[in-house]
Amino acid sequence: MGRTYFAEEAIGQYLSDLSTKFKPYVTGLLIGQCSSQRDYVIRAVRTPPKEEQKEGNTSPSKLESIDEEWITAHASQVSRMLPGGLLVLGVFIIATPELSKDSQNALRKIIFSIEKSLTKRRLWKPAEEEVSDRAALQVCSATKKIVCRTYDVQDPKSSAKPADWKYQSALSASWLSLDCTVNVNIHIPLLATSPNHDLEKNTKNGLNRWSKQIEDSVFLINGQVKDDDTELLEGQKKLRGNTQYSTQISDVKVLTQLSQGSSHRSTATVQVCGGSINLKGAVKCRAYVHNNKPKVKEAVQALKRDIINTLNDRCEILFEDLVINEGPHKKNFERVYHVLPQRLFVPFAGSSVMLSDYKFGDEAAVEIQERFVEMLDQSVQDEDIHIAEELNT
Question: Which family does it belong to (predicted)?
């Protein structure tokens, strides 16, 4: 039995619009949530055109010219803009009938390329029971016929399995959000033996150790430690006259000092250091789970991953910014303060889910708006940009 993808109805219209606008083909990403029972697709986003394609709405005429690297880079950028619980769960192509027979192979290559890129950046390990199937959606621009297949990204030899693609109205409204603020105070020693004081590598190592603490932390939901397999909404009242629950469980606290495994013995080591990095501040974290009987385990896992991702992504963005502004070879050993970018959230139409992004203090709203148009094909109004954190974080 193949997987079933429930897609927000508006995606059908979006794909239909793309098929009339872009010829002979257009590619893009599918965004949503995997669960053991079913998968939810809340958004499809076309691959942004390269500079040379912006002039006319045309793609190169042959599928061999699909730029795997460009699509993979787009997926990496988009994954930074997704709060906990959401991921790039597949790719789509809308192609003319004559290109359709070759497009499945192209999609397969892209899916594995994206997975390889995202895995390399991750600081958390997938759970054993994690869904590793990713969707390849083919739409014929002439007949509008849809073919959905999946590939298991854990298996490099994986062949295509058939999957169902079903549209559902108001899917984007049926989500629960979990919010928390995590106070970060990470001290990363720079070993005297470390070559060239490689700040980026050392920071990554320090974040790796910290991410394990987050994985082992205890999460209080509405002041209680709940069993992994209990339903998240157990004991919650439904809103009167409504089949939906309240969409927010905002009171989540993270107890990082309490470890769930008593076997973790701490041993002290003495190391000769030539300096240190300190990451300090309060970060806003958010995760979404679909309200179809979510388990505590799923919600906590989504929030843990958001906590780890948001700090890792900011450090990556900062280092990328330093390379652009200071050059890759600048090594600065004096006491330097860098402000990590602030987190912001932006709603998207007809949905209770908000997407995320990061801004440096001197970045104007127009730059954020341009990024949303390019990366997520979405226009954003000034008043829709919600800065989640104080600047001094």
Answer: Belongs to the ODR-4 family.
